[in-house]
Amino acid sequence: MTQPAPIRRAPGKPLLTTALELAARMVPVLPLRAGKLPFGNCHSCRDNACGGRPNMLAPGPCGCPRPCHAWAAATTDPATLIGPAWASAWRQTVAVAYHPGGTGLTVVDLDNADAITWARQTLPATRTVPTTRGEHWIYRGAMQSANAVRDGVDIKSTMVYARWLGPGTGTMTDLPDAVRALIVKAPATVWPTPHAVTVLPPAGGGECPHRTPAYLARGIAMAEQRITEATTAVHATVYRTFLAVLSAHGRCGCLTDVHIVRLFAAAQAKGETARHCTDAWTNALTRLGL
What we know:
9 helices; alpha+beta; 10 strands; globular; 6-stranded mixed sheet
């Protein structure tokens, strides 16, 4: 098994000290264990079951007895950082991470030399931080995060964490439109093919209760949010979300192509391919016998 690349840290400075210094500057932080992974924290919130909508200054508002998972655990509250919930975690911590979007920043994660060359030729100069394989380019301004927007390039901002590797060099500049445009997908890439939802009349006749606009809109919005907030097991989250939507709305004809496109777009913004979206949708249809 390939061992993870070593994570650079400031020599002689305890990681908790680094975290507290960042928190004092209102940068939401969290500890990472080996493999650059977050600690499990609250078991009742596993796989983002709580919805991952934390108050960045304290655990909650999902009522978690411990800090939430991953980016949702990032906090600026020193009492949380040094409190009993994370006491054992800091003894196993190998790196400090932060939530870029929580402090109004976007990190363009360049993972190889070709990606760095592309950035230098395409993007405005800004603050840069060396990583183990490439560079982080940090811009002022938050946006939706997305993986693999091009070869070797990830966008880390809202609802993700990034490793803290130091303050970097250079003057930070405003988030350019060229970076925002990286997550825009052409509409044709998100249309399902060719297995659309089977439109069936509601059992027993009469008007389908799901046609209430607010009910259907809320269901689709919650599904989009669940996909968007997934920080681990994205493939599985997309499939389970598609399955849940089809379970609720797949037999009555409520879903339209517009709804399906929205779900596919949310999945692709998390780095899923159009083919995987179609496969997950088809598998969910098959599972439900649609």
